[in-house]
């Protein structure tokens, strides 16, 4: 029997009582409803009361069982909005803006607008040339000509190394904010075209290498293996900077055969070349560790390994140790070649002072600061070493000329 039928079978007084009690429920409105009044009415009007009661009860139950959603709070004007996606814009200033638009991706691929890497590759060649010059008694004109030839080779080979690196990293670069707009990553250059471009660069590098004495070819060729393996090292070890150091420092041995000093028959030259090579490896790891701090967060997300990730909390201590190793090995190379005070005071002392100042001042949490010290470190520290080596070479060269004149 339904609730309506049971209610209709009750006497009028009980129906009224039942209706009156129902109206006192908390879910009823405070104002009495005319249909639910407790005053007895004719039977014809009483039929609508239970129906209204049931309808109201059902509606009220549904209304009270639904949890009201909290009011939407408007976003504060201070809430930061997500950063807009990076969009590539062609260069409008600088060297790249002067090139035809079809050349720009290839110029970006070899980092033509960011020459710091070229200088870092060139400086070990310059160091070894200046260190070998007193041993070979080469005139300044010869030293200058080979130094310029090394510079042109550094430009070509650094570009080839960047192309090979971007080919390896074409699936990783899009996940790193600093590299996501590189030409291969943004698909401005296809991997096949980049591979052809690499071959052209290697042929150009070979043409420059053939301008040196033949022995230089045999000393320089093994470095190509390191150029190829460096991008792979980022995937298997936290110390790819060490592999980069082995690659970028290779020129520390080439200045000796370029000036006619045979490393295999001259033990002093071989010792000096080995110590200079080790010094440059330590220097490369040092500055590239600072460089790697720019991408430390993105590298962690992308699964790229680096020494900056491995030793993030003790970076300054590691940098200090590398600086000590670099200066000590550089001094050892000077001792092996019989360098004078100008080298030790200017070159070694200058390197120690500039590296100490950089390590103290660099803010490893600032991408801008890391980039500034990476770009200018080649001029600050590399310039000090070059000046010390150059001054020592010129002093010794002209001193020997005076002795020859006196003897004659």
UniProtKB/TrEMBL annotation:
<feature type="transmembrane region" description="Helical">
    <location>
        <begin position="267"/>
        <end position="287"/>
    </location>
</feature>
<feature type="transmembrane region" description="Helical">
    <location>
        <begin position="143"/>
        <end position="168"/>
    </location>
</feature>
<comment type="similarity">
    <text>Belongs to the UbiA prenyltransferase family.</text>
</comment>
<feature type="transmembrane region" description="Helical">
    <location>
        <begin position="242"/>
        <end position="261"/>
    </location>
</feature>
<dbReference type="InterPro" id="IPR030470">
    <property type="entry name" value="UbiA_prenylTrfase_CS"/>
</dbReference>
<feature type="transmembrane region" description="Helical">
    <location>
        <begin position="216"/>
        <end position="233"/>
    </location>
</feature>
<feature type="transmembrane region" description="Helical">
    <location>
        <begin position="342"/>
        <end position="359"/>
    </location>
</feature>
<keyword id="KW-0999">Mitochondrion inner membrane</keyword>
<feature type="transmembrane region" description="Helical">
    <location>
        <begin position="371"/>
        <end position="395"/>
    </location>
</feature>
<comment type="pathway">
    <text>Cofactor biosynthesis; ubiquinone biosynthesis.</text>
</comment>
<keyword id="KW-0812">Transmembrane</keyword>
<dbReference type="GO" id="GO:0005743">
    <property type="term" value="C:mitochondrial inner membrane"/>
</dbReference>
<keyword id="KW-0472">Membrane</keyword>
<feature type="transmembrane region" description="Helical">
    <location>
        <begin position="119"/>
        <end position="137"/>
    </location>
</feature>
<feature type="region of interest" description="Disordered">
    <location>
        <begin position="18"/>
        <end position="45"/>
    </location>
</feature>
<feature type="region of interest" description="Disordered">
    <location>
        <begin position="59"/>
        <end position="91"/>
    </location>
</feature>
<dbReference type="InterPro" id="IPR000537">
    <property type="entry name" value="UbiA_prenyltransferase"/>
</dbReference>
<comment type="pathway">
    <text>Secondary metabolite biosynthesis; terpenoid biosynthesis.</text>
</comment>
<dbReference type="InterPro" id="IPR006370">
    <property type="entry name" value="HB_polyprenyltransferase-like"/>
</dbReference>
<dbReference type="GO" id="GO:0008299">
    <property type="term" value="P:isoprenoid biosynthetic process"/>
</dbReference>
<dbReference type="Pfam" id="PF01040">
    <property type="entry name" value="UbiA"/>
</dbReference>
<dbReference type="InterPro" id="IPR039653">
    <property type="entry name" value="Prenyltransferase"/>
</dbReference>
<keyword id="KW-0831">Ubiquinone biosynthesis</keyword>
<keyword id="KW-0414">Isoprene biosynthesis</keyword>
<comment type="function">
    <text>Catalyzes the prenylation of para-hydroxybenzoate (PHB) with an all-trans polyprenyl group. Mediates the second step in the final reaction sequence of coenzyme Q (CoQ) biosynthesis, which is the condensation of the polyisoprenoid side chain with PHB, generating the first membrane-bound Q intermediate.</text>
</comment>
<keyword id="KW-0496">Mitochondrion</keyword>
<dbReference type="GO" id="GO:0006744">
    <property type="term" value="P:ubiquinone biosynthetic process"/>
</dbReference>
<keyword id="KW-0808">Transferase</keyword>
<feature type="transmembrane region" description="Helical">
    <location>
        <begin position="189"/>
        <end position="210"/>
    </location>
</feature>
<dbReference type="GO" id="GO:0008412">
    <property type="term" value="F:4-hydroxybenzoate polyprenyltransferase activity"/>
</dbReference>
<feature type="compositionally biased region" description="Polar residues">
    <location>
        <begin position="31"/>
        <end position="45"/>
    </location>
</feature>
<keyword id="KW-1133">Transmembrane helix</keyword>
<feature type="transmembrane region" description="Helical">
    <location>
        <begin position="318"/>
        <end position="336"/>
    </location>
</feature>
<dbReference type="InterPro" id="IPR044878">
    <property type="entry name" value="UbiA_sf"/>
</dbReference>
<protein>
    <recommendedName>
        <fullName>4-hydroxybenzoate polyprenyltransferase, mitochondrial</fullName>
        <ecNumber>2.5.1.39</ecNumber>
    </recommendedName>
</protein>
